Every structure is written in C-alpha cells, then in structure tokens.
Amino acid sequence: MLLDAAVVTRCRRRVHLEHDPAAATAPRAALDATAARRIADAAAHRRCVADQLAGYHTADWAEVSPGLPAEQRCAATLALLIGRAPFVWGGLLLADPQSGRRGGVELLVRHRGGGYLPVIVVRHKVTDPGSGARTSSLAQPTLASTDPNRKVRPQSRDQLRLAHAVRLLQAAGLAARGRPTGGVIGLEADVVVWHDLDAPTWPGGRTAMAEYDARFTDRLAVARAAATEAEPLAQPSRITECRSCPWWPLCGPALRESRDVSMVLRGEDAVALRAAGLSTVDELAALDPADEPPVPMAGMPFRDAVLLARAWQRDLTLVRRNRRVTVPRADVEVDVDMESFDESGAYLWGCLLSGSDIGMPGGYRAFATWEPVPTLDEARSFAQFWVWLTDVRCRAAARGLSFAAYCYNEQAENRWMLRSAQRFAGAPGIPAVAEVQEFITCGHWVDLYGVVSAEFLCAHGKGLKTIAPAAGFSWHDPEASGENSMRWYSDAVGLGGAPPDLTQRTRLLTYNADDVHATRALRLWMSSEQVNDVPYASDL
Ligand code: SF4
C-alpha cells in the first residue's frame, strides 16, 4: 500500500474508493475540459519555471525525464542525490513501503549543510502584499531572508505536500538537517517562499508536520480497510470536491437514495448533524425551524437549513423567503458582466443598456481587448467601458432620471475595476481609484446575487446558470460556463502559440451578452407577478 501526497487533502471516501476492489469497475466521470485545461496550464507553468531556473543554474542543473518508467525515474533521482547534484528537477523519490509513502517533487535543492530541501511549483498566489515571509531569489534559492514586501498567503495544501516530501527524504536519509523546511514557487514565479514546517502556525498551535502525520495515518488506515474489504472507515458526504470528483456517478445516486443530509448541507454542518443523530434530509425537514438548532451551524442559519430540506423534499429549486420579493429598479438600467482570464487580466466588459431614452443606443455592447492579457490594450478597453458608463450616468442625471447598474456577484467586477484603475493609473480615460470606489459604494451598483440571497432559498445553489432558468432564461450555448469560457478565451487569443480562433471570440461575445440578458431577465421576473408562483418557504 503506497499513497502519494494528494491523499492528505483528498476526500476520505475517495481514498476508500480508490482502494476498494469492489469499486474498480464502477462508472467514473471523465475528466472535464476545465480540469484538463488546469492540468495542462499547471504543466506549462512548471515547465516555464524549470526553464527559468535552468537558465540561472546551467552548470548545476539536472533533470529527471518524466517519460521514464517510475523505477528508472527513482533510480535516476537517487543517483543524482547521492552524487550531490545541486538542483534536481522532476525527481521521483524512493517509495517507503514501511510508512506507505511514495511521490516526487518538482525541485530538490541541495542544502549548504548537506541533504536536500523540497521545492514545489504551483499555479496560485503564495504571497500577499505585506512583510515577514521568508523568501529567496530563483538565482540563489537557499539564501532566504525576511521579505519586507511579502507576507505568506496561507496555502495549507502546499505545506502538506512539502511535509510529504520531507518525510520521504527523511526515510531515504537524504533530508537536510535541521527543522523540516520546504519551498514554494507560486504563480508569479518571482521568488521561492520558504515554510518552516515545524512552526506552530496551524489552528490550535499545531505544525504542518503534525497535521500531515495525523492526516496521512488516517488516510492510510482508510485505504488499508478498503483494500482488505474490512469495515469502511469513510462514507460519502457531499462536499465541494464532489463537483469535480470522478466518483460522483457512484456517490451522487447513493446519497440521493439514502436522502443523506449532506444533499442540503455541506461539510461540517452535515457531519455535526449526523453526529447528533440527524442523518437524512427528512429528519432535518421534520424539525421546527423556529427551535434552537440541535448543534451549532456554521454554514447557514438553522431556519434556512430546515426550510431548504423541505424544499429539497419537494424538488424545488427556489423558495421565497419573503412574501413580497423586491429588487431595486431605475429609469435607466445597465447590466454589466466582466470576463477575466485567471489572474492575468479582464479582457471584456459587456453592458446591456435598457430603460428610458437618454439619447444613446440601447442594447448590448462589449468593450474588449483581444490581445492576450495582461496587455496595455486592457487600459484602452477598460477606459472605454468606464467613459461609456459615466456618460450613461451623467445623461440619466441630466434628465432627472434614476439610474442603476447590475451585476451578478460583484466581487469579480469590483476587484477588476479597482485593479484596472490601479494598474493603468494615468492612462487616457482611466478613472482614479477613488472614482471607482465611489461608484461601487454609490448605492446604484446592485449585486443581484445579494438580492437573490436575500429573497430566496436555493436548493441547488445560487449561481446565475441555476437561478436565471427559473426566470425563463436560457443560454444560446449549451456549454456556457465560466470555466469553459477560460478555454474559449485561450483559443480566441491563441495562447500556447496556435493562431487565434475568431469563432471563439464570437462565442465569448455571445456568452457574455447572454449573461447580461440573464441578469436583466432575472430582475424583470423578480419585479413581476410571476415570481409569486415560487412557493413561500413558511408555507412548506
Ligand atoms: S464524489 Fe464526493 S463523497 Fe464521493 S468520493 Fe468524490 S468527493 Fe468524496
């Protein structure tokens, strides 16, 4: 029984299924396009970092070919480590049958005092503005110092991966002496961030090593019980990870069949209720929502949990919280939807103008750049969007008309408006940050996600793609989703060296236009009598 680092952050039931002989032939969901793209992007990022590092350390650089069979990769890695190679990329460490560990690490760096330090390369942010992180340059990775400009962004998964590598190095007698330490190179790939894995930085004063050891011991027990067909140590429970888990075709029907309480509650609340003897949706639905909760609830108020359970029993997507649904409306209305590509930039601001005549053409218009982000051309498209929006506001005000702009889940739009104002400060048409801030807080910028949350209980989630169909809206593109739009964007601008695919630009514009039409349809429906057809929660 050999487990890699992923098990310590993976669903326990998944670890069970991956080792249960009875599940070997069970149907599994194929890797979706989004996950495949993430994997490809991560691989490209790792290669890019490797090339950068190899450039700094030409004479000291060694790579273990990923194409080799595992045994040969292990042997090649070991030979390099015994030979005291300063930098080993792509190493696969000797499996440790005694502890049940196996695995590799992107980079092994020889320490001045002997032995190796593991460094992983990840495609997410690992620091935030601030100070106090221990960092080193890629040119001199082992010369770490306290960074005056960065603080560590807590990423527990990274530290647990490093702890796994440290334990493997220790088992092979190849770990650097001293406190267990490991490095991370993040999305920006500008520094190595070093973690003291024995520092009591985890909840309850625990260390990363202690947390890792406890989790690994647990997952090993789960896997062994599964492999020997003993009493299972892990049962399914719906969590966020289920959405992208290959085992959902097995767990989903089982959870529905057993009417498991996690179908309406996720994570810790479902665990806590089960521990209190409430394991089904029906048992939860039978409680009085006005009573005190049987256990403290972390994810949602107890009343909502009971009413959601009742909605689930009746297969209702939505129920009204209030007898009368209200949504802010205005004479002049603009629905806004921004498209961004990961952390790289915001490439499209789509707007739908409707309402009273203000001497401007109504309907949809897009402010886009098709140069791959990040690009200075983003400044042009953002400035055009801002100038247009400001013009709409001014014309409405000049005519004595009320104005409102709408989006769905304002966090992304707000973040990119503020970030664009910061990044392109001083460029033509770019507003001051304070001007953007004034707009965000002016009261006329309405987050429909917040309105939906206040007005409805949603048994299947509050995403626009889930809610807008209740208002009779549907998207032209059957594959429309934020995740898929990333792939379309990649093709639309020719990331990865392929020629830009113009049909994907059209697809993105259609998708964006549909999103703003969806928010408009949603608020028109919420303002209409039809919304009263949605059952009222307290009537259930
Ligand atoms: S579908 Fe959910 S419960 Fe089942 S193994 Fe995957 S993450 Fe775990």
Descriptive account of the structure:
- The chain has 540 residues and is an alpha+beta fold.
- The protein folds into three domains: 49-196, no CATH class; 259-314; 332-533, 2-Layer Sandwich (Nucleotidyltransferase, domain 5).
- The chain has helices spanning 12-19, 33-56, 70-82, 156-171, 208-227, 248-257, 267-275, 281-285, 302-313, 377-398, 410-423, 433-440, 448-455, 464-467, 482-492, 502-526, and strands spanning 61-63, 87-96, 101-110, 116-121, 127-129, 134-137, 145-146, 150-152, 181-185, 191-196, 318-320, 332-341, 345-355, 363-368, 403-407, 445-447, 456-458.
- Strands 1-2-3-4-9-10-6-7 form an eight-stranded mixed sheet, with helices on both faces.
- α3 links the parallel β1 (61-63) and β2 (87-96).
Give the secondary structure arrangement, pairings included.
Layout: H1 12-19, H2 33-56, E1 61-63, H3 70-82, E2 87-96, E3 101-110, E4 116-121, E5 127-129, E6 134-137, E7 145-146, E8 150-152, H4 156-171, E9 181-185, E10 191-196, H5 208-227, H6 248-257, H7 267-275, H8 281-285, H9 302-313, E11 318-320, E12 332-341, E13 345-355, E14 363-368, H10 377-398, E15 403-407, H11 410-423, H12 433-440, E16 445-447, H13 448-455, E17 456-458, H14 464-467, H15 482-492, H16 502-526
Parallel strand pairs: 1-2, 4-9, 12-15, 15-16
Antiparallel strand pairs: 2-3, 3-4, 5-8, 6-7, 6-10, 9-10, 11-17, 12-13, 13-14
This protein binds iron/sulfur cluster.
Iron/sulfur cluster is lined by residues 11, 13-14, 17, 236-237, 239, 241-242, 245, 247-248, 251.
Care to give the gist of this entry?
With 540 residues, the chain is α+β, with helices and mostly antiparallel strands. The protein contains 16 helices and 17 strands. Helix content is 39%, strand content 17%.
